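Table S2 (text version). Query chain:
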Amino acid sequence: MAEVEQSHWWYRSTRQVLTQILQPLLPTPAEGRLTLLDAGSGTGATGAWMMDHGEVIALDFEPRALVLYEQLHPGSQRIAGDVSAIGLADESVDVVLCVTVLCHQSIASPAAAVAELARVVRPGGVVCLMEPGVRRLYRAHDRVTHTARRFSRNDLARMLSGAGLAVLSSTGAYSFLVPPAWVKAKLERGRIASDLDRNQGGLGGSLELAARVERALLRRFSLPAGLSVIAVGRKPA
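Corresponding structure-token output:
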């Protein structure tokens, strides 16, 4: 992640779609700047962009990831821990972003983890979830990333509402990748391999262009499914 977060088309496109969805929903800070939690931050590839909007706390259970986060994105706070047991006070952050964490085999209960994310958000604050979509599409990249489950957009929405949050939006993303990913999964037949090891340019920029077209659609419509799913909930004031 640290090596390719700037060069890989998927990371660039993911930061752009998350910014497009989340930025208009950011609460107005009561005083000072917003406090934003990058929950399951990794090296910052999908969440460090939030530093443009306030003080970011990076949370991850992998110490090496936090070291790389600081090297690549200096100025953030960093805490080692688990999204299911966050070492922060109740209602202590304005925004939580959690990307491809609930799918991990280390998360015993995704719903309990979302409840914990909701616990640390202030009234009026938002929680944004992004996870792998299409539940039956398990493939080589999932094996190397220890992915135990995939979600529908309704799965994410139900977990947000179950944690007491009002669901503001839910959508599929990277819908154009579902057919080729299905074919790729059939061809891989049990292999273990990471999508980050190849095709960083996205077929000569064509995949990044497709993602740009999809983002234009997402400004007006929610997609029923996609290789990723995204949902946002707000804590009642």
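Notes on Table S2: The first strand starts at residue 34 and ends at 39. The chain has a mean pLDDT of 90.
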